[in-house]
Every structure is written in structure tokens, then in C-alpha cells.
What does this fold into?
Amino acid sequence: MPSRLLKLFLGLIAYGVSMVMMLQSDLGLMPWDVLHQGIALQGGWPMGRVTVAVSFVVLLAWLPIRQKPGFGTVCNAIVIGLVFDAVNGLIGDRLADLSLVSRTALLIGGIALNGAATAAYLGAHFGPGPRDGLMTGLVRRTGRSVRLVRTLIEGGVLVSGFLLGGTLGVGTVGYMLLIGPLIQVMLPWFDSRSGAPARQKALQPEPEESCS
It folds into this structure.
């Protein structure tokens, strides 16, 4: 249990840091962050707090599809956004004048760190994040493929975020192409259950850890 909790919280902290890295690269955000940034720009709110608010709105969408949150689900909804605001507020201004080479390195590092962070919190088996849980819940309820459901969800938030002023760029495309393979490769490194199908098991909350 202590090692699983450590993986969970280190993964969530690293996820928040990876969001800052991609934002400060100014080369494009991951799809959900395009939406978060767009809402933040329209409302004048800190992007991390928007991330937390959107997480709980997404959790409300779990109710009709009967998806059950785990301890890690709630932690995901709160910790990532708070870490993002703290780290971005601390280093944001210091990265304003980076060269293109430095910003590219920041982007690549952010995507790689995000893959490791996702693998860590999923591998801890405390339940999926709000957005992953929405996807898997819809897959289970509709019988549609993961690829189709994920494409529709992320396509919808990407377009909505762009219309609100969120940042699209090469980083957005790179993230969408690389994050799946990165998680697939890295998840066995962090998986707490040997011999289990990593991705599928990691996305299912434990009944005894459910917060519902």
C-alpha cells in the first residue's frame, strides 16, 4: 500500500508538471488542456483551478453511465490542477524568452513525462482519472471501441477549446500520436500487479477502494 500511494501521488504531481512544460513550450497543448486553457482565458481564472472544476463536471457525467470512482479518481481531480497552478506560478515568467530549440525540448520532455506520470497513477490501481473513466465507462455502456469513443471525446474537447481560444500546435498532434504508445510501453514498469493485463486492469477501480 505505501508504494502504491507513492506511485499515485508522484504520478499526479508529475502529470501537473508535464502540463506546465507543454504550456510553457508554447507549441501546443494536450486536447483536454486546450479546453482548460480556453475556459481559463474566457473566464480569467487560473488554468489549474479550471482543470479541477472540469474534472468534477466530468465526474458528474459518470452518474448516468454508472462508472464508480476510486480513491485515485478523486485525488486525480484535485491534485493535478493544484500542482499545475503552483508550478506554473513559480517558473512561468522565467521561461518566457526560451529559444525554439529549448521550447521543443520542453515539449518533448513534457510529453514523455506525461506518459510516465499516467503510467504511474494508473499502475497504482486506485482507479482511473475522471477523463479516462468517462472513456472506459462509455465504452462499456455503448459497446463501441476505445478508439472511436476516445476520438469523439478528445475531438469534441479539442474543437471546443480551440473555439474558446486554447492553444493548438505541433505539440497537440505530437501528444495525440505518442501518448498511447508511451503509456503502453511504460505501464508495465509501474504496474503493481504482476501478470495482469496492465492497461485494462489499471483503468478499473478496486471495489474496496471505491469512494462511492
Residues 194-212 have pLDDT under 50 and may be disordered. The radius of gyration is 16 Å.
